[in-house]
Structure formats: structure tokens, C-alpha cells
Write a structure and sequence with these properties.
The protein is of the alpha/beta class. It is built from 14 helices and 17 strands. 39% of the residues lie in helices and 16% in strands. Bound molecules: ligand C6P. The site of ligand C6P has 17 residues, from helix 4.
Length: 416
């Protein structure tokens, strides 16, 4: 009863149904859950949870190798999921979709399979200063191994990257551009269209780290004309341990395998082997079958809602949150890009982000505090960490009001 009384009124965009998310109906420390850590991972609707249970209860078997009925069902579900992903991002063909563990593995796959084959001593790879470690460390490892150099597009005070500086970095040694589509710290949506066009004028491929964009914006890879795109299922209602690398067919055909093992081969002798066709050439071993099926269900869910509805609603609640946050005394918000998503990093004067996150947790509010796996951003801002609230379509205006109240309380509580 107490819980019911505390449950705040819910005010959604049309078609959004919070009741689909069992975890959001729970309480934390006697408070309804306010989940604002969606950039880290999103919650799962029961449709996705049910799809996982259904797969394990009725269809479980290994894929691509069994003659029996269950094997056929598992293979059909897994390949249908690939087709669903291809359709979702408008890939030219299913063959351009490789299932990975997540964004991190997808980028490592490119750095290994494409990078080791095509990057040579003296070559340059352009990244930005606002990359998540997942789109930085794989390139550091590659550059060290190949004797290549990393170049960085600086970000400006408002958390946007400097396109003019990007142009200056381009030269005949540039081999690849790898940038985040949407920053997990600033929320900035980068000027990727201009960047891709410029890169292609130089004949240079572009990788987009789309971990934060595909879950929140309609993404059409043919329209973007990006060469590689990486994202994670768990940030878009899907299970953990499943992600996607999209790459243009020609690039995949020319790349070497990523890992060796079952499924990625065609013919094997003791001393040598030939490779399976794409995408299987890049999927060694038993894949995350249930994960792929769960991801397909998550995509169905998003498509039923429509990405356009989701994006508009998220823009609205983010604008609402930003306006209220900016009115608070002693707050610094990092990132004021005109084109942005629902990620807000901030600090309250004299309050350590970990203390603030702990205080909010006492009231049922989940936010992230730390460097957000982007230490170079923190170093440039000359701070150790921030608190970050990140929204998804199931968050409400009422939750934001409650969050603002608690921020005000925290400011008073920690004042000295
Ligand atoms: N960022 C965050 O709280 P994985 O872990 O492979 O699913 O995603 C890695 C990754 C890559 N790029 C960007 C832009 C990301 O935001 C992330 C994940 C989470 O910000 C966890 S550190």
C-alpha cells in the first residue's frame, strides 16, 4: 500500500508502456525504482525475457551443424535475428551483420581483422578526444603493433568535436577514422555525415561507435554510408553478451578472420584451412544464440514503438531535465551540444560524484558516477569524475521532477 502511495503518476509519450518492464515496477530501499543509468545498460521488457525463456524451453540446440529438428529451429531463430538486425539498420544484406559480444568486441574485431591486414608503419588513424575506451584501446594496441600513429580530433568546451580541426588532420597517411556517433559522457551527436563525406573524398573508411546511438535514434547505414558500425544489444532492451558489427560486404570479404575455431572454416587440413563465407568467417565457435534471439525481440519491441516516437520523447524529457538542472545552484553540466541525446553528465559544487550517486541511491535513483570509461575526457576537463543521468523512453517527467528534488536535497545535505 505504502509503495502504491509512493508510486508517482506516470506520464508517457503515446504507445510507451512501463508495465512491460518488470524491474521498473520494483522498489529500491522502499522507493519506486528511478532508473537513470541507461547509457550503461537498459532494462528488459518481459517480451524479451519471455523470448529467452521460450528459446531455452522449446528450441535450444546448437546452430548450423545439427540435422535434427531442434537444431533447425535454433538455426532459423538465429538467422532470423540476423535478418532482423540487417533490416533494422537497413544493411544491404544479412551477410554484413556479424554477431559479437558487444560494441567492444565489434571494434576489436575491426582493429584485428582489418587493422592487422591493412595498417602499416607510418599510417595514421583518426579518433576523437571523446572516445570511450572501447574505441581507443584497440587502436592503441594496433598502432603499437604496426608502428602506426593515432591522431585526435579535439573537443570544444561545449562537448562538440571540432570539424575544422578534423579537416586539418586528414592527409595521405590517414588509414581510418573511428569516432563515436553519440558520446556516452556529453551526449553529443557528432557531425558524422560531414566526416564520412570528407573521409570518403580521401578514400578513407569510417567506423562509427554506435553503442549510444542505435538504441536511441533511427540509424540507416546505407544513408549514413559508414563503412563499419558497432553496437551492443544490452543498451537497446536486449540481453547482455550480444552485439553487432556491421561492415560493408567488400571490406568483410577482404578482411582476415578474427578468431579461429569451428564454423568459421570451409575446409581444414592439418597444416592449413580455407574460410567460410561472410558473415560466418567472423563467428568462430558456438555463438550467443539466445542473445541474438533476445535482441531480435528487442528490435521488434522498438519497431512497434517506432524509433521516431522514442527519439522525440527522449528529446522532450532530456530538454525538460536539462532546463531544470541548469536552474540549480552550483551545478556544472558537461556538454551543451545543440544536437544531443539523453545523457547528462554533471557535478554539484562541493559534492563528490560518488557521494551524490550514493545519496540518490538511498532514494531509489540509479545514476552512474565515475569517469564513464572515458578517462581522456576527464583529464582534459581537469576533473576526476562526473555524475551521469542517462534516460530511455520509459523514464517519465515525474521521475525527473523527483530527481531534481533529490539533487536539491543533496546540495543542502552536503553543504558545509
Ligand atoms: N558505455 C557507459 O556506461 P560494451 O561494453 O561493449 O557493450 O559497450 C562499450 C561502449 C562503447 N562505446 C560507447 C560510446 C559506450 O558508451 C560503451 C559502453 C557504458 O557509458 C559502459 S562503460
Amino acid at each position: 500500500m505504502e509503495v502504491l502511495e509512493k508510486k508517482r503518476q506516470i506520464n508517457y509519450g503515446e504507445g510507451i508502456n512501463r508495465d512491460d518492464f518488470p524491474i521498473l515496477l520494483e522498489t529500491i530501499r522502499n522507493h519506486p525504482v528511478v532508473y537513470f543509468d541507461n547509457a550503461a545498460t537498459t532494462q528488459k521488457p518481459k517480451q524479451v525475457i519471455d523470448a529467452l525463456v521460450k528459446y531455452y524451453e522449446h528450441d535450444n540446440a546448437n546452430v548450423h551443424r545439427a540435422i535434427h529438428q531442434l537444431g533447425e529451429r535454433a538455426t532459423a531463430g538465429f538467422e532470423k535475428a540476423r535478418n532482423k538486425v540487417a533490416e533494422f539498420i537497413n544493411a544491404h544484406s544479412d551477410k554484413e551483420i556479424i554477431f559479437t559480444r558487444g560494441t567492444t568486441e565489434a571494434i576489436n574485431l575491426v582493429a584485428t581483422s582489418w587493422g592487422r591486414k591493412f595498417v602499416e608503419s607510418g599510417d595514421e588513424i583518426i579518433l576523437s578526444e571523446m572516445e570511450h575506451h572501447s574505441n581507443l584501446i584497440p587502436w592503441q594496441l594496433l598502432a603499437k603493433e604496426r608502428g602506426a600513429h593515432l591522431r585526435f580530433i579535439p573537443f570544444k568546451e561545449d562537448g562538440t568535436i571540432d570539424y575544422n580541426e578534423f579537416i586539418k588532420l586528414m592527409n595521405k597517411n590517414t588509414k581510418l577514422i573511428a569516432i563515436t556517433h553519440m558520446s556516452n559522457v556529453f551526449g553529443t551527436i557528432n557531425p558524422f555525415k560531414k566526416i564520412i563525406r570528407t573521409a570518403h573524398d580521401w578514400g578513407v573508411p569510417v567506423l562509427l561507435d554506435a553503442a549510444q546511438s542505435v538504441p536511441h535514434l533511427p540509424v540507416d547505414v546505407q544513408q549514413l554510408d559508414c563503412d563499419f558500425l558497432a553496437f551492443s544489444g544490452h543498451k537497446m532492451l536486449g540481453p547482455t553478451g550480444i552485439g553487432v558489427l556491421y561492415a560493408k560486404t567488400q571490406l568483410l570479404e577482404n578482411m582476415d578472420p578474427y578468431q579461429g575455431g569451428g564454423e568459421m572454416i570451409n575446409t581444414v587440413w592439418l597444416e592449413k584451412a580455407t574460410w567460410n563465407e561472410i558473415p560466418h568467417k567472423f563467428e568462430a565457435g558456438t555463438p550467443n544464440i539466445a542473445g541474438a534471439i533476445g535482441l531480435a525481440e528487442a528490435i521488434d519491441y522498438l519497431q512497434d514503438l517506432t524509433m521516431e516516437t522514442l527519439t522525440l520523447y527522449e528529446q522532450d524529457i532530456t530538454t525538460y531535465a536539462l532546463e531544470k538542472m541548469m536552474a540549480l545552484d552550483g551545478i556544472t553540466i558537461y556538454g551543451q551540444a545543440p544536437e544531443r541525446g539523453g545523457v547528462v553528465s554533471f557535478n554539484l559544487e562541493n559534492v563528490h560524484p560518488h557521494d551524490l550517486a550514493h545519496f540518490l541511491d538511498q532514494h531509489g535513483i540509479a545514476v552512474r558516477a565515475g569517469h564513464h570509461c572515458a578517462q581522456p575526457i576527464m583529464r582534459k576537463l581537469e576533473i576526476a569524475s562526473t555524475t551521469r543521468a542517462s534516460f530511455y523512453f520509459y523514464n517519465t517527467y515525474e521521475e525527473i521532477d523527483y530527481f531534481i528534488d533529490k539533487l536539491q536535497e543533496a546540495a543542502k545535505f552536503f553543504a558545509f
